[in-house]
Amino acid sequence: MTTSTSQLTTLFIVVALVCAFVPAFSVEEGEAKTLWDTCLLEITPKCALDIIGVVFGNGTITDACCHDLVEEGKVCHDTLIKYISDRLHIVANETQYLKKRDDLWTHCVSVTKTA
């Protein structure tokens, strides 16, 4: 019985962590989910992780990922970063992340104009 309870508890913790850290599972509105799905069509998973790494950490981004980001558009970029920054565990630093989001966008637009 304790093994079953332990496994159930572990499963619950994993599901809770996934919902907390993966915004696509947390989006409740149909329109927002559609926008989320639409915005991630052209960006590779690696580029998406790089973008998140730049905005929420000290990551770097390649010129190729900048091109993908600009191709998706500013509305997608702004919306996706806003969804992530709205999560309770990071909302206290939202202003900082939104500034980094805008700085990344400016950088990527300048990269695409020089290419």
UniProtKB/TrEMBL annotation:
Keywords: Signal. Residues 1-20 form the signal peptide. It comes from the Eukaryota. The keyword Signal applies. The keyword Signal applies. Residues 39-109 form the Prolamin-like domain. PANTHER family: BIFUNCTIONAL INHIBITOR/LIPID-TRANSFER PROTEIN/SEED STORAGE 2S ALBUMIN SUPERFAMILY PROTEIN-RELATED, BIFUNCTIONAL INHIBITOR_LIPID-TRANSFER PROTEIN_SEED STORAGE 2S ALBUMIN SUPERFAMILY PROTEIN-RELATED. This is Prolamin-like domain-containing protein. It comes from Eutrema salsugineum.
